[in-house]
Predict the 3D structure of the following.
Amino acid sequence: MDLSELRGQIDRIDAEILELFVKRMEVCRQVGEFKRVNKIPVMQGNREQEVIERIVGNSPNEYKDVSALFFQNIMDISKSLQNIDMVEPPCADDYKRFVPENAEKIACQGTDGAYSETACKKLFGNKPAKFYHSFEDVFSAVESGEADFGILPLENSTIGSISETYELMAKHDFYVNSLIRVEITHCLAAKKGTSLSDVKKVYSKGEALSQCSKFLSDGGFERCEYANTALSAELVQNSSEPVACICSESCAEVHGLDILSRKIADAYPNYTRFICFSKNLTVGSDSDIISILLTLPHVKGSLNRLLTKFSVNGINITKIESKSIAGSNFEFMFFLDFVGSCLDSKVKALLEDLDREMGSFRLLGNFSEVE
C-alpha cells in the first residue's frame, strides 16, 4: 500500500469523525437547552470525570493519554457552546460609561514633567493632577477615594512590561478605564552650564535607564536608579554635583535643565502604554479591549484548556503575561488581554465560564486605547 492510499484512508476516516462530531455537538446543544430551561448549571458533579475514565478504560494502552486529551477537548468545546446558548444577553444599562470630562481628582506618580503627566493631559486635557511619590501611593489614593482616577505606566515597546505595576494590580481592587499610548523621547539633561564631559552619574527610573542602556554604556556613565524621570530631573536641578538625568525634553524645560543629548533611547519609535484606572467598571460602545487576571488549576493541560475556551468563542488573545505569586512555591498568575466587549454575549459567556472554572479570576476592565 502506497502513501496516497494511506492518505485516502485517513480522509475517509476524517469524514466519519466529522459526521459523528457534528452529531455529538447537536446533541450537546440539546442538552444545553434542557439545562437552560430547567435552570441546571453547565457543570454537573463528576460527569466529566466519569466520561474521561470510561474513555481511558476502553482505550488501548498506547492511546490512553491521547484519547483522554482528545475527548477532553471535545467536552471543553461542548461546554463552551452550551455556555453561549445559555447566557442571558448583556445589557448596556448594566455598566457605567467612562467620561473623562467628569474627572475631578487624578493621581499620577512623580512630579511636573513626568511622562505620566503627558498621559494625563492626553486623556483629561488640562485638568490638574496630584502627584504621589510611589506607584503604590497612586493605587492607594484611588482605593481610598482620595483620587477618582490613577495613571501609571504598564508596558514599554522597548523593554516590555513594568513589573511593579503588574505586582500592584494583583494586590489592589480597581478597574482599568482607558489605555493611553505616549511616545517616549528620552534626553540627557543637566543643570545649566554643565558640560557632558563632566558628567559621571546619570539618574532616572530603572526602566528609563534600561531603555537607554547602549548610550549609557558607550558613555561610561554610572547608572543611578531613582523613583521617576521627573523626580530625577528635580534631583539634578537641586544637586551641587555635575550629575545628569534621563527625562523627556519637556521635563527638562520644566525644571530649567540644559539638554546635553537628544533621543538617547536604544530604539525609536519608543512608546509606553499607561493605564487609567478607578474603582468603577466602565464599558462604552468603543470599548474593545478586555483585561483579566487568573490562576490556573494545578492539573495537566490546564493552559491548553484555557486557550480552547477562547478559540471556541472566536476571541483573539492579544497578550499573556505571567507573574510569580509572592510567597508561593513557583506558582503563577496570568494577565490576559483580548479583543472584545462585555456587551457581547460570547464574551459574557466566556467571562462567566472563567469565573466558575479558574483557580481564581478577576475582570480588570473593558476599555479602549487612546493613541
About this structure: The chain has a mean pLDDT of 93. The longest helix spans residues 3-37.
